[in-house]
Amino acid sequence: MTEALLTASKPELLDKEGDRTLRGVLYDYFAFGRSLEACREIFANFVDLSTTQYLILIAIKNSTAEEPMGVNQVAERLYLSGAFVTNEINKLVSDGLLEKSPHPDDRRRVQLTLTQHGLSLLTRLAALQRPVNDALFGMLTRDEFKVLSQLLSRLASNADSAVRLAEHVKATLKFQEDQRALTTNSPSPRKKRRTTLRNTR
């Protein structure tokens, strides 16, 4: 495969067959991702929540007294904007699933906890989640699962910067293509001179 057709350039991502292994990884990841998205929608629908509200409740359920979660912590954990998470949290508070209380160390902040209603909802949901998550990940050994957890954490932490890079490179390449198109379509200086001479005769 010629270098111009490769979809990556780092040696770690390439092999003797070019980027074939990388493409296989992505195809498998997209297939697994679609299944995860479908399961997440089923989980959220089961308890009459949006998928984001479902994720927020799960994230807060896994917080601890030593590390309580506020809006910013939830947004960071879910890789979502603070404004969007704030809106969804306010809905959950209104529905009686979450409650806000002052942070013990910083009165300017709030910490989020599940209400009894929220805990009951997640207890009901867990009966559905357990067999599905076992089916999704049960073929992995404990060591494999730990490696997967570490790798996905590293990949997720860099994903936003990759998206920003994609937008920047796309705009740069588009600009270069537009400039080349203008140069190609415009008459050459010699042709322009002949046109000017004809017009003055």
Automatic annotation (TrEMBL):
Annotated spans, Disordered: 178-201
Entry keyword DNA-binding: yes
SUPFAM superfamilies per record: Winged helix' DNA-binding domain
UniProt keyword annotation of Cell cycle present: no
Domain (HTH marR-type): residue spans on this chain: 1-157
Record GO terms (molecular function): DNA binding; DNA-binding transcription factor activity
Keyword list, A-Z: DNA-binding
SMART domains tied to this protein: HTH_MARR
A UniProt-annotated Pfam family: MarR_2
GO term, biological process aspect, one: response to stress
Record's compositionally biased regions (Basic residues): 189-201
The protein, known as: DNA-binding MarR family transcriptional regulator
Species per Swiss-Prot/TrEMBL record: Bradyrhizobium macuxiense
Organism lineage: Bacteria, Pseudomonadati, Pseudomonadota, Alphaproteobacteria, Hyphomicrobiales
